[in-house]
Please model this.
Amino acid sequence: MLLLLPLLPALGLAAPQLGTSPWGPEVAATMLRFGCHQLVIDRIDPLVNPGSLPSPHLHQIVGGNAFDTSMPYNVDISSLANCTTCSYSEDLSNYWTANLYFRARNGSYKRVPQIPNRLPLFGDDITTKTEGGFVVYYVSGGIGDVTAFKPGFRMLVGDAGRRESLGLRNQTCFRCYTGPDFEGDNLAPCYDDAVDTEELPGKMCWGIRSNILFPTCWDGKNLDSPDHKSHVAYPVTGPHTFTALGTGGQCPESHPVRIPQLMLEIIWDTSLFNDPDEWPEDASQPFALSTGDTTGYGQHGDYVFGWKGDSLQRAMDGVCFGAKCHVLHTQSLEEGKRCSVPSRVGEEVDGWRDVLPGNPDVWKKK
Ligand SMILES: *[C@@H]1O[C@H](CO)[C@@H](O)[C@H](O)[C@H]1NC(C)=O
Ligand SMILES: *[C@@H]1O[C@H](CO)[C@@H](O)[C@H](O)[C@H]1NC(C)=O
Ligand SMILES: *[C@@H]1O[C@H](CO)[C@@H](O)[C@H](O)[C@H]1NC(C)=O
Model:
């Protein structure tokens, strides 16, 4: 491949300009990693409960401003949105997950805020300064390794109603940071038996990180499916563990097309709630997802693709790292913060509350 590059100008083709791999020239892969501000916190879900106002539980949403109670699936979302809260201005997609709440001993709830990621990876100073929101990753195993999602594509990971372990720590996991320098952040997510759990940590942490890894194999035909899952699959060797670059593992015959490894990374500032006098006397843990889930097994993530044109494909083949890529535009922190949508439900979600928003059937102990 590289030997052919000098021939391209002679053929009238622009030579692809490759980025620089921090892992050395032999790793010609891409790992986009970029922060996204909060777009809105709202009790709507255009994927699972389209049109419901409100939907059963609260979500935190990042990305483009075409997010709404329902979103047309056969339409290019990038043509509907005008701005994004994410670092890359070409990314008008939407990503959303559950919120986390703390329950004090008197039974009142308070939302746990997120903190931005710690590392200004490869010169990126946006990801470390976002307000709310979370970090998004797209990984390829090399040039030509993955096919970018098509306009209208969407998918879901996890099951908001799950309350027991299905051994799916490789899909959604939690990690307990033990100190204010993000102690424990140095290992690949969802991989390490010592630090990663499928359930909420169950002990006092300085912060809790949640990673959500989407499937990396696609049936090549359907942009969505009734359960928003069956058009995609994990590799036959099981969910990718993110231990190395790439989309890892062989795709099943039914889902032969390798798609980028999409991963969400949320960090909650649980240090604000570490007063032992407010923790349950029975030594159980006091955090619940906005679904009312105190186990964490119901963690889930939703994705509606909305990159402009072929920008995601170019980035996946362009050998890019972090929040700056030579074939994409990185917008300023202020531009990202200016993008928002109003809450459709308009309910109060912060402050001390008697019940979780929507009052989902809650506090079922482990
Ligand atoms: C984007 O801009 C167009 C043209 O100004 C406008 O019609 C449309 O409503 C805007 N979309 C959003 C989501 O704000
Ligand atoms: C419950 O406890 C929290 C934390 O001490 C306190 O801020 C809140 O006001 C209390 N709520 C009620 C209803 O007393
Ligand atoms: C994660 O995936 C690997 C590879 O499939 C598997 O060996 C391991 O058991 C999985 N771990 C969990 C916790 O699911």
Remarks:
- The longest helix spans residues 311-316.
- The chain has one domain: 1-11+29-366.
